Amino acid sequence: MKTETSAVDIDRNKGDFFYPEAHVRDAGAGLSERTVHYISDVKEDPDWVREFRLRGLKTFLEKPLPTHWASKDLEAIDFDKIRYYLSPGTEAKRSWDEVPDDIKRTFERLGIPEQERKFLAGVEAQFDSEAVYSNIKKAVGEQGVIFVGSTEGLKNYPEIFRKWFGKVIPIADNKFSALNSAVFSGGSFIYVPPGVKVKHPLQAYFRINAENFGQFERTLIIADEGSEVTYMEGCTAPKFNTPTLHSAVVELVALKGAKIQYITVQNWASNVFNLVTKRGLAQENAEVKWIDCNIGSRLTMKYPGVIMKGRKARGEVLSIALANDGQHQDTGAKMIHAADETTSNIISKSISIGKGRATYRGLVHVPKHLKNCKNNTECDALLINATSRTDTYPAITVRGTGNAVQHEASVSQVSSEQIFYMQQRGLTEAQAMSLSVNGFVNDLVRQFPMEYSVELKRLIELEMEGSVG
Amino acid sequence: MTKNETATIENQAAPILSGPAESREFPDWFRDQQSAAWKLFESLPKPTRKDQAWRFTNVGLLDLSPFRYGARLTEQEHATILEQSRGLEEVAGRMIFAGDELIERDVISDQLKKRGVIFQSLERAMVEHADLFRKHFMSQPAKLGSAKFAALHQALVSSGTFLYVPRGVEIELPIEIFHWLTGENASAFPHLLLVTDELAKVTVIEHFRSVNEHVPGFACGVNDLVAGPGAKVTYVCAQNWADNVIALQMNSTTVDHDASAMSLNLHLGSRYSRFESLSRLIGEGGRSDLLAVAVAKHEQEFDARTLQDHVSPHTASDLLYKNALDDRARTIFGGLIRVEPHAHFTDAYQKVRNLLLSDDAEANSMPGLEILADNVRCTHGATSGQIDEDELFYLRTRGIPVPVAQRLIVTGFLDEVVQRLDHPAISEHLHRLIEGKFAKNRD
């Protein structure tokens, strides 16, 4: 195996295998009230959750697809063919030994338990709709940190869960957040008590194993006053012949002075529709930082956002997207300034290879009568081949004086002089190209945790193979 | 209004929404085009904010029901308009329109005429130069959102300017065109059809003004600007409609190989003004410069939409839009650089800068890029900020009072754009207009 030392699997080929299905719970294909009731019954939802789901379904059916601005490729999703809930019908295991053998084999091939031993503070592994394994290191648990699946979270910690659930991203935020609200299952619930700084990252691992399946995990992370936490997620799926849908909702709440860092390495197979809503709320002096790397999927539409609600709150999005043949990475960021002295920073780098298309879509909003808000946005795009495509669509609204907002974007290609120079030094054209691309993302990658930056660079090299000549 | 009432008010012109007037004397083919355009106008839906091309726009302002065709001018009004149509000191030719009626045409010099320059009204050109007219008149589709209003213009346009500059002819002095809105709820449909042949050179400045400063009105103009191979075309618009005017202007520029086109739009007047600029670079070596300056005060809303469309390889474009916003004013900039497949070696630049002078002003910027080729260099930037305290402090230490210092900084900010024109007389004229707007607001 190539990536033994890696924190998370981002070698595309490594995820491309699957085991025969043995699901006990299956909601069947198509979406109706019956599907929602089935999921609620299986999960023994409290009444308020069942109602929440039904409202989600109603909103989903009412809202049109956003194809007036988004890719028409969305129309290729056949909502009637998708299976909305599949699970082995067992509780998540606390010990790796108890995980059923076939599932265990899946995650062992992906190197999950090994990584846990190495440096993670906790791991949750989701297989199709439900978590199959969830564990947190004893020392971290003793500090009062809660790290469980969303189902367990809403059952065992309703007083914290219910207060924030659906508050950062309302049901009707968009068609896909409504869909998630109707059929959500899995995902993580994390609560970090006041002042607790979780040293090592918590990690979730998402795996789609079944064909025609839709994965709709729901994650809620609450960092109480003065606490700090880093969360990482990784995802893979085998490449089936029919498209698969992944539509998650992730809500982050950073209370006064708290810091949340959320890292995603998205490496879905190239026929997954990845339509995800992610947003954080930052109270006074709090910080929410999204590190978002999109390498896989057929179409990704994801614009992580931060609502800076308290004075001096900070929001940051660092985004890297790599679009290869047949892929459209439609990514970006939303920064909503809602208090004085809030600052936000967006840095986006995209690389389009072959017929790939990378799109940056951004929103920066500074409403009336705020003072000393600052936003900085930088988007750089690199085009490798003549058939590659890149787009940039920012929307910036600034009201009033006393704020500073700047947006810059550039599009370029690898300079032929650079390539020529490196070839003079004995590198092949492909090696030179790969080195140039790594140089392009380097200043951003350096800000990532070390394990990620090493792995990301390897992955970029892999993707670059055969892209020249 | 019932039919009887209409009959009793003899001098009142018909509402524009009643459709094209029957009485006009146009060739049959043009009438057919107009009735087709009217049908299109009626069939197209009204814009809503959900359309990406109308995002952030206060679309509620686009109620056309009060507006009427321009009434006939009295002799007194005629004289006043001629008196007030003062722009540049020296011009090569001049046309003055009041409510779509050509009231004066200062003939272009005999020498230019002999060399084949055609400078005449649109309605004459459609008869005398039907081929040129039909080839270029509204030949570009309205791509930037206003297809409905372009159709309205096409259905109701009744006059305008036709200017043809033949091969190798360079007109040094600018051509000047005035458009006046007259009377309450009057409307105008200004049109400029400018065709330059190979290596020709011309500069046109259009003034948009109202006879009465406070009455509502409506203007819906289209310009077709064609820069032939190696030609050099400069187009300047000085928009100073009255406070209550709703205005839409759709310009499309075609830039052939080795040609260069420069446009500068100055926006001072109107309640709502939308300006769409499409610049298509269709030949290698073509270059397009798009400049704009807006001074937005009170409730004014300026809505600029642009498309730098690189169709051919080896083309360049450069856009610089600057807005100064005071009171409750709003500006919208929606711009796109599009590099079509195979348009390699494109060099495109786009920059919008907003200077906010009040807490209630709102600047919206949407600078976009769509790149479908490689080997390109495209950059864009958008900034929003306020007057630099250090600059203000510096001027105050030199004994300049705050309001004067502020005005100096703002006009300096805007002058950078105006100075890009290589016609000092026009730059000077625009500078005076900008100062005039600040002076007016001090009262």
Percent helix range of chain B? 10-25%
* Quaternary form: heterodimer
End-to-end Cα distance of chain B, whole Å, is 40 Å
Structural class determined from secondary elements of chain B: alpha/beta
Please summarize the sheet with the most strands of chain A. Answer: 12 strands, mixed
Task: Tell me the span between the first and last alpha carbons of chain A.
Answer: 29 Å
How would you describe what is shown here?
The complex is a heterodimer of chains A (469) and B (443). Chain A has 469 residues and is an alpha/beta fold. Chain A has a domain at 414-469. Chain A has eleven helices and 24 strands. In chain A, helix 1 (33-43) runs antiparallel to helix 2, helix 6 (150-156) crosses helix 7 and helix 10 (429-445) packs antiparallel against helix 11 (450-464). The radius of gyration of chain A is 21 Å and the shape is globular. Residues 1-10 of chain A have low confidence and may be disordered. Chain B has helices at 3-8, 28-43, 75-84, 110-114, 122-128, 130-136, 147-156, 389-397, 402-418, 424-442; strands spanning 93-98, 101-106, 118-121, 161-165, 175-181, 186-188, 191-196, 201-210, 217-227, 232-240, 245-255, 260-267, 272-281, 287-296, 301-310, 316-325, 330-339, 347-356, 362-371, 377-385. Chain B is globular and about 65 Å long. By secondary structure, chain B is an alpha/beta fold. Residues 1-11 of chain B have low confidence and may be disordered. Chain B has one domain. In chain B, 24% of the residues lie in helices and 37% in strands. Chain B starts with a helix and ends with a helix. A ten-stranded mixed β-sheet of chain B has the order 2-1-5-8-10-12-14-16-18-20, with helices on one face.
